[in-house]
């Protein structure tokens, strides 16, 4: 494991045990926010690709990428090969990390707040959080979490009530219809590369 990735993993573990101690799903979000803030504070020095490399293992740890990819692809998933599945999961993970590296590129005094009151909806937990900038009102963040391998993982993020996973599914429809798994894979790789320019 790279030294930077190890340091971020330690930060996640410390946050998970010290903050929002009442619920493991909320603690997972607290840890993710701590790691994200750490990268933001080094954002300009790291550059887009540096932020991406720091955040990629954090995203892989915090998100249920196989489940998210399967949902975003939709019904076509059942007609794809295992090799296509694995390639798309990796590409979806890269796009997710690239999106965070692009959108959270510097620190300007923002803070994240996680609501310790967690809702349970069927197999999922709903964690409410806020990103509070210094120059405008808070951004509402809602995380849908599900158990995977004994850990609570993010399966969707709502920014001001807009599902990012549903947005991805709509975005993937055209390249998937035009080129199947390989067309979607090319689309994901191009989107990631653009975000990291």
Write up this protein.
This protein is of the alpha+beta class and 197 residues long. It has one domain: Nuclear Transport Factor 2, Chain: A, CATH 3.10.450. Helix content is 59%, strand content 19%. It contains six helices and six strands; from the N terminus they run αααααββββββα. A hairpin with a 6-residue loop joins β3 (124-132) and β4. The chain is globular, with a radius of gyration of 17 Å.
Topology-level CATH name: Nuclear Transport Factor 2, Chain: A
Total number of distinct structural domains:
1
Please give the count of helices.
6
In the predicted model, the low-confidence regions spanning at least 5 consecutive residues are 1-20
- Approximate helicity band: 55-70%
In the CATH hierarchy, the architecture is Roll
In short:
The chain is globular, with a radius of gyration of 17 Å.
Question: What descriptors fit this protein?
Answer:
6 strands; 197 residues; disordered N terminus; Nuclear Transport Factor 2, Chain: A; single chain
SSE blueprint:
Elements: H1 3-18, H2 24-41, H3 43-62, H4 65-73, H5 82-103, E1 111-114, E2 119-121, E3 124-132, E4 139-148, E5 151-159, E6 162-163, H6 164-195
Antiparallel strand pairs: 1-3, 2-3, 3-4, 4-5, 5-6
Helix pairs in contact: 1-2, 1-3, 2-3, 3-5, 4-5, 4-6, 5-6
